[in-house]
Amino acid sequence: MTSLYSKELEIAQLAVQRASILTKRVFHEKTKGTVSKDDASPVTIGDFGAQALIISALKHNFPHDEVVAEEEAAELRSNSALRDQIWELVRTTQLDDVAAEGLLGGAIKDAESMLDIIDKGNSKGGRVGRIWTIDPIDGTKGFLRGGQYAVCLALLEDGEVKVGTIGCPNLPVDDSAPLTADIGANATDEEGRGVLFSAVIGQGATSRPLKTGALAEGKSISMKPITEMSNASFCESVEAGHSNQSESARIAQKLGITKPSVRMDSQAKYGSIARGAGDIYLRLPTSKTYQEKIWDHAAGDLIVREAGGQVTDTKGNRLDFGVGRTLATNSGVIAAPKAVHSQVLSVVQEVLGVK
Asked: Is 320 labelled as part of a ligand binding site?
């Protein structure tokens, strides 16, 4: 008997795997033609290319589902050199397993179709129906420096995350590999790196090696029980603009955490704590007005919760993915094993003065 969401999971995993091939090619071919973007995070050719490949796979399999994605093609319509560079990559990227590539619908027809597909990521989100949310390259700065980045895809149904998949080309495959301080910088996809995390609601979380064809065998992952808070490790963003690092340090100190924080970009942090390589992920608000984007958290939120964790904002509320394209009603993120989440939350609230 096929389990609930089994087709959605398989397509999501294969779509992320195919898009990851493209992002790795972009990284190695150094075609990082960065174009400016309103919120000052760099956009790469890989962002557009990966988004096109993922939406194409989704629309082939689930034509009526909506998609919330970050990029739009207006810029490529007016910049033919950039468009041609992206199209060349998209045209020549496929899974090396014929059946798997076939499941995704194969190649996009032409450059014009590619632009139309990129623009299909314009859903406003919300609480009704099936909506996929994509971050084609989460952690663009990590990507540019050869550190951690992730290709992220999640399915929301009536505002709830049902399926989540995160491809991390530069994380170690080994679930028990501890996080090292330099993992956020020097981590290109050599041998033994590349992992695909996924979860379906109510069915637990898994990790498997990120491959270039059919899916590898997956294994169940779970968060590590914290017996001594002093042995815990916590992850935060590399960029100070993404999370308040001085407050994180005070929180760690009050919790009795003695290890230095591990700083890495992207939802690789969610995957790392879900498999017990790290313990706690803090993202503390840096401004009162900033709203987190749903594509930066949806997949990671489900994977951590299915691995035995709890994920809330700094007020202790679950993340609400049904408001629109942003987490407009939430502020910050705290992800930790269920057993210690309330302890972490109360220290966060004490330091931030939130109640």
From this structure: no
Task: Show which residues are catalytic.
Answer: 47, 140
The reply, when asked if residue 71 is annotated as ligand binding, is no
Entry pTM: 0.94
Measured in degrees and rounded to the nearest 5, phi and psi for residue 71 equal -95, 150
Distance between CA atoms of residues 338 and 341, nearest Å: 5
Residue at 57: amino acid letter: A
Amino acid (1-letter code) at residue 342: S
Q: How many CB atoms lie within 10 A of CB 306?
A: 25
Question: Computed from CA positions of residues 84, 86, 87, 91, in that sequence, does the dihedral angle turn out positive or negative?
Answer: positive
Annotated binding-site residue? 70: yes
The reply, when asked if residue 182 is annotated as ligand binding, is no
Do 257 and 229 meet the contact criterion of CB atoms below 8 Å apart? yes
Tens digit of each residue's pLDDT (9 = 90 or more) over 68-87? 998 999 989 999 988 998 99
Q: Note the pLDDT of residue 285.
A: 86
The tokens 């149904």 sit on which residue? 157
Q: Tens digits of per-residue pLDDT, 195-234?
A: 999 999 999 999 999 999 999 999 999 999 998 999 999 8
DSSP string covering 8-72: HHHHHHHHHHHHHHHHHHHHHHT----B--TTS--B-HHHHHHHHHHHHHHHHH-TT-EEEES--
Distance CA 298, CA 325 (A): 11
Q: End-to-end CA distance of the chain, in Å?
A: 47
User: What string of H, E and C letters represents the secondary structure of 164-232?
Assistant: EEEEEEEEECCCCCCCCHHHHCCCCCCCCEEEEEEEECCCCEEEEECCCCCCCCCEEECCCCCCCHHHC
pLDDT for 41 equals 36
